[in-house]
Design a protein that fits this description.
CATH topology: Alkaline Phosphatase, subunit A
Helix content: 25-40%
Distance between the termini: 27 Å
Number of strands: 17
Mean pLDDT: 87
CATH class: Alpha Beta
CATH superfamily: Alkaline Phosphatase, subunit A
Shape: globular
CATH architecture: 3-Layer(aba) Sandwich
Strand content: 15-25%
């Protein structure tokens, strides 16, 4: 059976990251000479991270189905970034960029490495400036074993506590986002006597495979007796063995995906209502975003983490809600990147900038003081291996290269927003012009890797390996 989410699981020991990061933090903090957060004025920050959520399946981003009424309401009273692009098409490199403000390259494309202990993370920076920090995650990919607990005073991998019999019964699914909300609220209630502001990271998984319908919640599934049941095993077997799927089969999976999005949105609404009831909403900057999108057979695949870096894989939502502090209903059309998230949040809440961040703060745009800068390039890659696919996106072009297959692409976005017409052969000079910055960026990542380790080696235990396999990360 499932553990009671209202009861805390054992806290991850904060001592290792404190010991490993102490020298770095002392040096950095000495240089910046910051003050601790003023409990009377510093806002709380909650990051609601929805794994595998593509922006164009949300109604506030123009989707025809009403999948996100709660997020729509937050966007109407806050700020929506229309073109945030993740730095990878799978979780670990993308989350590393979000949590450090630096380009990816910290993971080798597999699960043999973890975020290096000397990496300076959002949680460490907030903690060093007087914030209480907690993280509750439903994905093993962002667990303590892979370095994502660094800086958190409390960090819980809720999915690790699902009874194996229950997990088998649910065909590999762990907890849903409603349990995540319950556990987060239980923690918030223990913080009432703590005068410090808090950083709370909540990582939900509902749109990620495996899928299931949620009775009583919006669903677009039709009666179906085909071969796809929403499980990870069946979905990937159908692709590996080239089952003769029909459009009805494919639409069934899209319908399940949309139902998961709608259920997650409902849970987000539960969180917002609870914050309001506790008197925390006006003093909390709520951040809603995703680590990557999902291909729903847009081209030839269902899932993520494969070679594609097209927009359905990287364009994700980013909504900021902070009552009375941001321009209600502001929509920002310019290109933003995952590396810009942390610098933006730090400036908005009044903390010093993180040293050596690659991203830039978009706080001025979020306040309505101007547009997003026009010349921001969005780089993305599958992993750090030399033959991994990589891509560069600007306001006008999308350029990619896959050394493993030799495939290259150039798309002119104003005329081809869906990225269907590859002009690589027709416009070779334009491709070389666009590919130049991409090549320089890849060299930068290699130089950084040679200058010092950005990852530490890690070995998988059987339980972690089994959970990764259930999610489709290991085949």
């Amino acid at each position: 059976m499932f553990m009671d989410p209202s009861q805390p699981s054992p806290n991850v020991d904060a001592a290792p990251w404190l010991r490993s990061a102490s020298a770095l933090l002392l040096g950095v903090l000495g240089a910046c000479a910051p003050e601790s957060a003023d409990a009377a004025s510093a806002p709380n920050v909650i990051i609601w991270l929805v794994d595998t959520l593509r922006a164009d399946h949300l109604s506030c981003y123009g989707y025809e189905r009403p999948t996100s009424p709660q997020l729509d309401a937050l966007a109407a009273d806050g700020v929506l970034f229309e073109q945030l692009h993740a730095q990878s098409n799978w979780t670990q490199p993308s989350m590393a960029s979000i949590f450090t403000g630096r380009w990816p390259g910290r993971f080798d494309g597999g699960f043999e490495s973890r975020l290096a202990e000397q990496s300076l993370t959002a949680a460490e920076w907030f903690s060093a400036h007087g914030y209480a920090t907690a993280g509750f995650v439903l994905s093993v990919a962002v667990g303590e074993r892979f370095g994502f607990a660094q800086g958190f005073e409390r960090f819980e991998e809720l999915d690790a506590h699902v009874d194996e019999r229950e997990r088998t019964k649910r065909q590999g699914r762990g907890y849903d986002a409603d349990v995540l909300v319950q556990r987060a609220l239980a923690w918030l209630d223990t913080q009432r006597a703590d005068e410090r502001p808090f950083l709370l990271y909540l990582h939900s998984m509902d749109p990620h495979l495996p899928h299931e319908a949620h009775p009583g919640f919006p669903s677009w599934t039709q009666p179906y007796d085909g071969p796809l049941d929403g499980t990870t095993t069946t979905t990937f077997t159908a692709q590996d063995e080239a089952w003769p799927l029909t459009e009805i089969d494919r639409q069934h999976m899209r319908d399940l995906y949309d139902g998961e999005v709608a259920f997650n949105d409902h849970c987000l609404g539960q969180l917002v209502d609870a914050l309001t009831a506790r008197g925390l909403a006006r003093d909390t900057l709520l951040v809603v975003l995703s680590d990557h999108g999902e291909e729903l057979w847009d081209r030839s695949f269902y899932g993520h983490g494969h070679d594609s870096l097209h927009h359905e894989m990287t364009r994700v939502p980013w909504v900021l809600h902070w009552p009375g502090r941001l321009t209600p209903g502001l929509r920002l059309p310019g290109l933003a990147r995952g590396v810009d998230v942390l610098p933006t949040l730090l400036e908005l809440v009044g903390l010093p900038a993180l040293p050596e961040a690659d991203g830039v703060s978009l706080a001025a745009a979020a306040r309505g003081d101007g547009p997003i800068p026009r010349d921001l390039p969005a780089f993305s890659l599958r992993g750090r291996r030399r033959d991994d696919p990589r891509a560069l996106r600007t306001a006008r072009t999308f350029c990619y290269a896959n050394p493993r297959t030799g495939e290259q692409g150039l798309y002119l976005l104003p005329d081809d927003p869906d990225e269907r017409a590859n002009l690589r052969s027709e416009r070779p000079r334009a491709f070389l012009h666009a590919a130049g910055p991409l090549s320089r960026w890849v060299r930068l990542l290699r130089e950084r890797a040679e200058a010092g380790p950005e990852t530490d080696a890690v070995a998988l235990d059987p339980a972690t390996e089994a959970r990764l396999r259930e999610l489709g990360y290991l085949r």
